[in-house]
Amino acid sequence: MPKVVSYLPDGNRVTEIKKGDNLLDAMLDKGVPLSYDCKDGVCGSCRTKIIVGKDNVSNPTFQERQLLGHDEVDRGLSRLACQMTVEGDLEIQQYAPRSISTTKYAPGVPNSTED
């Protein structure tokens, strides 16, 4: 199973997820507090930098290229966690959410909003 190292404000985490799983969904299921809002690739709140393992994720989607720009995606500066599936080991870091008051977090995380 692929290992994902997440560099988060509250500390680093190493999480094993199934190959082929959506990055955002798998991390949330494991209790890792990645930020998100829509899960559809249109808001950008799950914008993530792949530090190591750029070739271990699915190809960028049309939504990512439209929202983030071709250059940013192609250079590996940003991807959307909600649009990626994991094929191997990764090291990631999330960018700060645009608006804390409208961004959702994993259940059980202090200062988060839940549906």
Instruction: Classify the helix fraction into a percent range.
Output: 10-25%
Got a strand count? Answer: 5
Q: What topology, given as strand order, has the largest sheet?
A: 2-1-5-3-4
- Give the termini distance in whole angstroms: 30 Å
Strand composition percent: 15-25%
Overall geometric form: globular
Structural class by SSE content: alpha+beta
Average pLDDT confidence is 85
What is the C-level CATH assignment?
Alpha Beta
Q: Any idea what the radius of gyration is? A: 13 Å
| N-to-C order of helices and strands | EEHEHHEE
What CATH architecture label applies? Roll
Low-confidence segments, ≥5 residues, pLDDT <50? 98-115
Number of domains: 1
CATH topology category name: Ubiquitin-like (UB roll)
CATH superfamily: Beta-grasp domain
**Biggest sheet overview:** 5 strands, mixed
Per DSSP, the total helix count is 3
Topology:
Blueprint: E1 3-8, E2 11-16, H1 23-29, E3 47-52, H2 62-68, H3 70-74, E4 79-80, E5 90-94
Outline the structure in words.
The chain is α+β, with helices and mostly antiparallel strands and 115 residues long. The chain has one domain: Ubiquitin-like (UB roll), CATH 3.10.20. It contains 3 helices and 5 strands, in the order E-E-H-E-H-H-E-E. It has a 5-stranded mixed sheet with strand order 2-1-5-3-4, with no helix packed on it. The protein is globular.
List its traits.
115 residues; 17% helix; five-stranded mixed beta sheet; 3 helices; alpha+beta; 5 strands; Ubiquitin-like (UB roll); disordered C terminus
Question: Outline of this structure?
Answer:
With 115 residues, the protein is an alpha+beta fold. It contains 3 helices and 5 strands. It has helices at 23-29, 62-68, 70-74; strands spanning 3-8, 11-16, 47-52, 79-80, 90-94.
